[in-house]
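Step 1: inspect the first sequence and its C-alpha cells.
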Amino acid sequence: MFKATFFAMGLAMVATVATANSPVATPDPDMAVSAARNQLGVLEYCEAEGHIDGEAAEVQAKMIGMLPAATDEDAAVEAYEKGKEGTVSAMGVEQTLADAAKAQGVEEVALCDQLAQMVVQAGAQLPQ
C-alpha cells in the first residue's frame, strides 16, 4: 500500500505540475499543494537521516514553485511538518516511513531512495 501511496503522490504531483499553467484547473489545488509539501518534508527527513542526497528535495521545491498558492496555508504547513517527521500524509492516508518499511519487509532507506528517484525522474520532464 505504501508503494502505491508514493506512486500516487508522484503521479499527482506530475499531473499537477503539467497542468499548473494550462487552462484546465486541478480539482483540488490545496490537496495537491499539501501533498507536494508533505513530499518535500519526507524528502528532507530522508536526507536528514542520511538515506538520500539533497537533489530530490531541490527538484521537489522547484515543482512546488510551479503550483498555485495554497488557499489553506495552515494545512499545507501541517503536511510539510508531518513529512519532516517522516510521516506521509496525503490523499487521506497517513503512515510513517518506519511503519511502511516494516510492513513491506524493507529498510526505510529503500523507500526514501524509491521516492527520491521518482521525484528526480519527474523533474527531468520539467521545462528548464
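Step 2: inspect the second sequence and its C-alpha cells, then contrast the two.
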Amino acid sequence: MTDKQKMTFIEHLEQLRWVLIRLISIVLIFMCFGFFYSDFIQSLLLSPINSLELENFKLQDIKITSPFMVKVVISLFSALFFSFPYFVFEIYRFIYPAIPKISKIYLSFIFIVSISLFVIGCFFGYNYLLPTSTSFFVSLADKEVQFYPERLSYVFYSFWLILVCGLIYQLPILSLIFTKLKIINYEFLRQMRPVSFVVFLVFGAIISPPDPLSQLLIALPLYILYELGIFVSYIFRVKS
C-alpha cells in the first residue's frame, strides 16, 4: 500500500475539510458572478416560456424582499451549476484511493462523461421539461382567475427542475462508482428493472401533460440511462 492508502481516519477528515473549504470557496465566487448577472440569467429562464406565448401568465413579486431574494436564489443555483465540474472532480479525487483497479486514464474519461451527461440532462430539462411542465400547470388555472405566479417561486422551480434532470443523467456514473465500492451490482440492477420502468413512467406522468406521448418522452430517456447503468455495472463489475 502507498502512504496515501495508509492515511489515518483523522488524516481523511483533514483532507475532507480542505475539500469542503475549496468547494465552498468556488461556490461563493460563482455566487458573486451569478448575483451580478442575475437579470440576464432570469431572461434565460424565461426564454422557453416566452416562446410559448401563454395567455393569462405573468410573474409578480409579492413581498418587499422578493426582488433581493430572487437575485440570491439565482446566484446560488447558478453557482451550483457552474461549480458542478469542480465538485465532481473533488469527489473523484477523494474516493479514488477507495476504488480498486481504475487507472487515472479511466477516471479522466469518467469525469468527462459525467460532465457531458450533466450538460445533456440540463439541456433536456431546460428545452423540454421546463416549457412542457409550465404549460401544463398554466392550463390548469381557472380562466376566470388572473394567474400571476410569484417570480421567486418560478425561478426556484425552474432551477430545481433543470438541476434534477442534470443529476438524474448521472445514473450510469453512479452505477459505476457504487459497483466499484461493492454497494450494488449489475444483477441487482437487472432485478430492479421492472420497478425502475414503472417509477420513470410515474415521474413522467407527474411532470408532463396528461398524454402518453409526453410521458414516454420523459420516461424513455431515463430508462435508457438505467439500461446503460446496468451495462456499465457489468463492465466494471468487481470479480471475486
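Step 3: confirm your contrast with the notes below.
The chain has two domains: 1-44+62-98, 121-240. The chain has a mean pLDDT of 82.
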